[in-house]
Amino acid sequence: MDLLDQLNAGRRDRLAEELKVLGRLPRNRIETCKRLDNVKVRRSSTIHIAHNTYSVNSRLIGEHVNIRLYAEYLEVWYGQKKIDHLPRLRGESNHSINYRHVIDWLVRKPGAFENYKWREDMFPTIRFRMAYDSLKQNHVLSVAAKEYLKILEFAARQSESGVDKALHILIDSGKAIGSAAVSELLETDMAIVPVTNVTVPDVKLSAYDELLRYDMAVAR
């Protein structure tokens, strides 16, 4: 105890100064997030949070959701249940649109796709963009949009990588792109990416001897 008192002797005065300006602890726990209640989901299946736009599932259009806004992400709550977890956007006037959220709404209104505000977010990979351009070249706009949205729906419901592989096959083979062709490839598993066989060659230990001799020669 004597040693402890001796070590703390020089700190007592500084501690007393700090205690004079310390405030009382808050009675309630400080929230780690900002809560935004009764946020209405717009007709575009989006919500506007902290000057940025996020998409949510289209079945929530017209409903009100609660938002928990954290530093790095936000949570979407509906009916006392967390239904989504979204990365938070930085800055202002930015948007994060997930095609899986809005595909149901778009499929019901294919005629609006060409002028859809966030249409560029509806192309998960470059091959999806190439597919839509090819469809527009070979069909009237209404048919092209309807066909493309069916393909995008396959990606949302089944496998984005599988649909991307199917489009790769169709584009490389020069075959006509369409929802039926993509569906056929998916059903026959041709669009499933095969496991790559990795071959590891035998290591020639003599190479290390050569490297050692080289290092010794340089050192001289």
Task: Describe what this molecule looks like in 3D.
- With 220 residues, the protein is of the alpha+beta class.
- It has helices at 2-8, 12-21, 99-108, 126-138, 141-157, 160-173, 179-187, 206-219, and strands at 34-40, 46-49, 52-55, 64-69, 73-78, 81-87, 95-96.
- The strands form two sheets. A four-stranded antiparallel sheet has the order 1-4-5-6, with no helix packed on it.
- Strand 4 and strand 5 form a beta hairpin.
Topology of helices and strands:
Elements: H1 2-8, H2 12-21, E1 34-40, E2 46-49, E3 52-55, E4 64-69, E5 73-78, E6 81-87, E7 95-96, H3 99-108, H4 126-138, H5 141-157, H6 160-173, H7 179-187, H8 206-219
Parallel strand pairs: 3-7
Antiparallel strand pairs: 1-4, 2-3, 4-5, 5-6
Helix pairs in contact: 3-5, 4-5, 4-6, 5-6, 6-7
What's this entry about, in short?
The protein has helices at residues 2-8, 12-21, 99-108, 126-138, 141-157, 160-173, 179-187, 206-219; strands at residues 34-40, 46-49, 52-55, 64-69, 73-78, 81-87, 95-96. Helices cover 43% and strands 16% of the residues. It starts with a helix and ends with a helix.
